[in-house]
Amino acid sequence: MSYFLKLNNVVKYYGEGESRMKVLNGINISLEKRKICAILGPSGSGKSTLLNVIGGLDSVDQGSIIIDEKTDITKLKRKEIAQYRRGYLGFIFQFYNLIPNLTVRENIQVCEYLASNPLSLDELIETIGMAEHQNKFPSQLSGGQQQRCAIARSLIKNPELLLCDEPTGALDSKSAKDILVLIENVNKKYGTTVLLVTHNVDIEHMAHMIIHMKDGSIVSSIENSNRKNAKDIEW
Ligand code: ADP
Ligand code: MG
């Protein structure tokens, strides 16, 4: 079996001396390409830390993180990590981090300029359902529309891996559903592998793989053979 993402015994501590705390306690994950993996677990269980180390935003103390069966990102130098982030990775968060004085289109365009192999801007704006809002500024948009724009900003470079840290955490349930449907559409249309941290347990129906974390450990990891399409789920 070939895996797009493989974590082997990843250990991460925060703090020094007395206050040193093990935040990731030997994490193992094997995820195939083009799959959606949901990560669930209580607050403080290490979900964000896990995404951050996979995204090269933070270092590990032990273990390996192998992308595409060849690159161990824990061994990369600073410059190579920047390359990995530029070439492979999209990252979205609970908050949208849009540039307030640029329109939707311009917000996405600044990311397009940085990409070596960008998607078509017009097609992407269409895919995220923002064609009619593309010339508006972030302050003129709802939370859900701002998150669509943030998703497009991370997708325009056509990343292989999309890391989503509670992307619906600040949204009402209708907008949250729309965002999850969008993420699934992106996964289908562009073949993007998705790691999605969420508190929305209904995600279990949509994900190909479901990981439950507690106190820095994976307590269960399940392949979901009965998955449904996001739009058919009663969110
Ligand atoms: P989750 O995303 O599941 O809520 P986090 O990964 O944010 O959990 O946090 C896991 C644990 O690590 C928590 O106890 C948190 O307080 C601690 N932690 C997170 N980031 C830092 C940091 N930069 N410095 C010290 N401790 C941290
Ligand atoms: Mg978190």
From TrEMBL:
A Pfam family that this protein carries is ABC_tran
Q: Which residues form the ABC transporter domain?
A: 5-235
What keywords does the record list, in alphabetical order? ATP-binding, Nucleotide-binding, Transport
Q: Name one GO molecular function term.
A: ATP binding
InterPro entries noted in UniProt: AAA+_ATPase, ABC_transporter-like_ATP-bd, MacB-like_ATP-bd, P-loop_NTPase
Q: Which family does it belong to?
A: Belongs to the ABC transporter superfamily.
Kindly provide the name given to this protein in its UniProt entry. ABC transporter ATP-binding protein
Q: What is the lineage of its organism?
A: Bacteria, Bacillati, Bacillota, Tissierellia, Tissierellales
